[in-house]
């Protein structure tokens, strides 16, 4: 082609359509989805470091090393994967080093935050204790835990300042009275929540006592379930007040009276809070009491086999339920694990009353139980021993812990009720608490927890005292209506169930007017679980930009409650008000 012709061809090409004679490009392949680490789908090859050490050596195996090595050679001899992993399988965590400011929680390495002391969690399935067991825990607290004893909202008792050298002796004493720390923490079936009035309540639909005992006997410490994807929480109640917070557990059994099949349980799965809260859903099946253990075993096996193990923050059962839906879950449950169909269930009726059981109540045998409120679960070894002595002096040898950080004294004769109440008051256990003391909950907080940012127990106690003094006019006038729950959490997790409280407070760092920072709270309002005044559970509302410094908390709560009293509609609950009101009324 000549130079002129080439130029002309080029000019023509600029105006004419271009024909691409090259072979077509293959469609871009989408990257293959990463495996979730589901054993039944992806195989059992571990996909993260935690899963590696869990498979290398089961968490239950660390007890032997504690007894034969660490208790003799001391804290510094403990290997990292045992200390920060397997110790949890026996209810042991390192606790926070004293004096480390909350502002440093997120910036320091774990070894900089932790002390050479342990938190030890005593497992109390169903909240059932004898006075002998209570006294033993109290004496252990005195001897090995600097007198500490905190009642959790999962019916356990936690001790602090425990040295690894003391752990074998603590186990010996606990196990001598039928208690343990087995699987009180870790990727295992945690404590089994149970109605604290199981077997004694007049209104009980079904008694879950044998159900809870069989689960504990057969499955706790069983290697079949000692390597689950994450922690696994169970609740079982047969009481019409639905007193085990079933909506926020991995698996729950709620007592119902089936019109054709009689008393049994409605099955719920997939609840959990923390930083990705999700409420449990009904599976839609009726579980006869005799089938309870088999159904629990099947649900737990599904979690073990199909639960997500690649990412720790997606490993709870709630994420599997969110992806599958309850229809698929039921199909897998019945077809793959039970090998039979379950009857269709019925919706549990609305709760009849408060589930904390505070106050004086008649038992079905003619005696009484007394529900008491310690300050946000804070007890001591001395108080536990004194409580055991008090009950035994009045002929009682049983008590229960609750999911609301309360303690129930059982089997009190009618003529002894007043005497026992006076004795309980003397040791700080109030059977007729103020509405604020009764309905405030707090997690461990910065005092001992490595994740915490703010002090929770002392803050809660101070706020309760202030509200009791400042709010007598509204309380006496009945202007606050039903009890209003105040839950205080020391970090963004939700050990104190902040998303399901009327007023939920999440520990954070907040700015100050002088350009610095201080400990404070993000506020969640209007959450709650199903109760006598709420048909369905719901999560709280986060008010934009509303952050409250710790020192301003009492003022804020007073202001908020007075706003509610002044602006509520007739019969409107606080939760209804909090979701309806303009933000300015909530600040």
TrEMBL record:
Entry annotated with the keyword 4Fe-4S: yes
Positions of region (Disordered): 1-45
Keyword Cell wall biogenesis/degradation: no
EC id: 1.8.7.1
Domain Nitrite/sulphite reductase 4Fe-4S: 186-341, 438-582
Named cofactor requirement(s): [4Fe-4S] cluster
Family in the record: Belongs to the nitrite and sulfite reductase 4Fe-4S domain family.
Protein name: assimilatory sulfite reductase (ferredoxin)
């Amino acid at each position: 082609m000549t130079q002129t012709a080439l130029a002309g061809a080029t000019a023509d090409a600029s105006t004419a359509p271009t024909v691409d004679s090259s072979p077509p490009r293959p469609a871009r392949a989408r990257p293959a989805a990463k495996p979730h680490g589901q054993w039944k789908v992806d195989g059992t090859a571990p996909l993260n470091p935690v899963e590696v050490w869990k498979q290398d050596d089961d968490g239950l195996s660390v007890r032997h090393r504690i007894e034969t090595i660490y208790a003799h050679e001391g804290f510094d001899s403990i290997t990292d994967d045992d200390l920060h992993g397997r110790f949890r399988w026996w209810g042991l965590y390192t606790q926070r080093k004293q004096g480390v400011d909350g502002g440093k929680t997120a910036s320091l390495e774990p070894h900089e935050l932790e002390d050479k002391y342990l938190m030890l969690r005593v497992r109390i399935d169903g909240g059932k204790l004898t006075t002998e067991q209570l006294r033993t825990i109290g004496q252990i607290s005195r001897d090995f835990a600097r007198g500490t004893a905190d009642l959790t909202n999962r019916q356990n008792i936690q001790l602090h300042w425990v040295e690894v050298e003391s752990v074998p002796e603590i186990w010996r004493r606990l196990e001598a009275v039928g208690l343990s720390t087995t699987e009180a923490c870790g990727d295992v079936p945690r404590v089994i929540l149970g109605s604290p009035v199981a077997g004694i309540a007049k209104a009980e639909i079904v008694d879950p006592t044998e159900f809870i005992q069989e689960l504990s006997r057969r499955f706790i410490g069983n290697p079949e379930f000692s390597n689950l994807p994450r922690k696994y929480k169970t609740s079982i109640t047969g009481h019409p007040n639905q007193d085990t917070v079933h909506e926020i557990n991995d698996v729950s059994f709620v007592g119902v009276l089936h019109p054709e099949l009689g008393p049994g349980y409605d099955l719920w799965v997939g609840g959990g809070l923390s930083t990705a809260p999700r409420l449990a859903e009904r599976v839609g099946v009726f579980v006869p009491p005799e089938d309870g253990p088999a159904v629990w075993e099947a649900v737990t096996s599904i979690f073990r086999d199909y639960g997500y193990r690649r990412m720790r923050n997606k490993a709870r059962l709630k994420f599997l339920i969110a992806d599958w839906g309850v229809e698929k879950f039921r199909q897998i449950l019945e077809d793959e694990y039970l090998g039979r169909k379950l009857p269709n269930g019925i919706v549990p009726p609305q709760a009849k009353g408060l589930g904390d059981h505070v106050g004086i109540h008649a038992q079905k045998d003619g005696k009484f139980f007394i529900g008491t409120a310690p300050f946000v679960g804070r007890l001591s070894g001395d108080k536990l021993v004194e409580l055991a002595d008090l009950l035994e002096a009045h002929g009682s040898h049983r008590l229960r812990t609750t999911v609301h950080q309360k303690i129930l004294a059982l089997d009190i004769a009618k003529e002894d009720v007043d005497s026992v109440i006076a004795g309980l008051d003397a040791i700080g256990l109030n059977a007729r608490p103020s509405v604020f003391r009764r309905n405030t909950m707090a997690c461990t907080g910065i005092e001992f927890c490595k994740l915490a940012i703010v002090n929770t127990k002392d803050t809660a106690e101070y706020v309760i005292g202030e509200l009791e003094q400042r709010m007598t006019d509204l309380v006496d006038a009945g202007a606050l209506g039903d009890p209003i729950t105040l839950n205080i959490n020391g970090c963004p997790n939700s050990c104190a169930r902040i998303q399901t409280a009327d007023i939920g407070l999440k520990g954070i760092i907040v700015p100050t007017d002088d350009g610095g920072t201080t400990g404070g709270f993000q506020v969640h309002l209007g959450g709650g679980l199903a109760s006598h005044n709420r048909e369905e559970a719901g999560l709280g509302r986060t008010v934009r930009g509303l952050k409250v410094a710790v020192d301003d908390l009492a003022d804020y709560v007073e202001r908020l409650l007075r706003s509610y009293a002044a602006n509520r509609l007739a019969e409107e609950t606080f939760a209804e008000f909090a979701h309806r009101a303009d933000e300015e009324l909530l600040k």
